[in-house]
Amino acid sequence: MKNVIGIFALAVLFSGIILTSCQDSSQKIVVKTVKVKPIVKEDIIKAQKIWGDAIVNIGNAYNNKEDYKALAETTVDELYGFDEGKVLFKPTKASEFPFRFTEDEAISYFVEGVVAEDQGFAIHTWSNVRFENAGIIINDNAATAMGNYYFTESTTGEEVKVEYTLGYFKNDEGKLLINVHHSSLPYKPAH
Fold first, then answer.
1. What total of structural domains would you count in the chain?
2. How far apart are CA 33 and CA 101, in angstroms?
3. Cβ distance 163 to 186 under 8 Å?
4. Beta-strand (E) ranges in the chain?
């Protein structure tokens, strides 16, 4: 009977059902089905729009002398998967400390904080962020998007082109979160 329960538990694990109670063969098996819809392209597009708007909003809060740091904390908490597990974050303008593995380090990049080299990327005050996906790979509840995003300078209207790779996953509640963020300026060969 233990082997049957063990095989059932493995089948349950791979089918998206959580086994919540089963101590011996005399007890009932209680299962809870977790139904999280797979990621679709529209989820990625929406998440990118939300991320871009959040960067603009942080800069606006900074300019309006509002609590931009609290807004950055909320943004990182809501859009990145630090509370769910490991996040690989490599921001654009970071050289001394290029890889960030904690929520505080990610927040620092956007508004200055625990990392000395950070200048506050989001408080640079961008007026718009526009994504151009070169490609998106979706694998059920995980996805990767790669391409260029363009940050519009609020004072000049000039766009700054940045290359990105973003990894996404859906948590148990079906919320799309970022777990990989790699961003870099385009390569310019020496002439």
1. 2
2. 32
3. yes
4. 17-21, 30-33, 88-90, 126-139, 142-153, 159-170, 176-184
pTM of structure: 0.81
Q: Kindly calculate the radius of gyration of the chain based on its CA atoms and give it in whole angstroms.
A: 21
Domain assignment of residue 190, yes or no: no
Q: Where are the beta strands (DSSP E) in 8-154?
A: 17-21, 30-33, 88-90, 126-139, 142-153
Q: What pLDDT, on a 0 to 100 scale, did the predictor assign at position 116?
A: 94
Task: State the average pLDDT over residues 26-42.
Answer: 73
Please name the helix (run of DSSP H) or strand (run of DSSP E) that holds residue 69, with its range, or none: helix 68-79
User: Do both 53 and 98 map to the same domain?
Assistant: yes
If you search the block for the tokens 């300026």, which residue do you land on?
Answer: 185
Domain enclosing residue 13, as ranges: 2-33
DSSP letter at 27?
A: S
Task: Please list the residues that pair with 132 across neighbouring strands.
Answer: 148
Structure tokens at 83: 């509370």
Per-residue pLDDT reduced to its tens digit, 142-170: 999 999 999 999 999 999 999 999 999 99
Query: Terminus-to-terminus CA distance in the chain, angstroms?
Result: 72
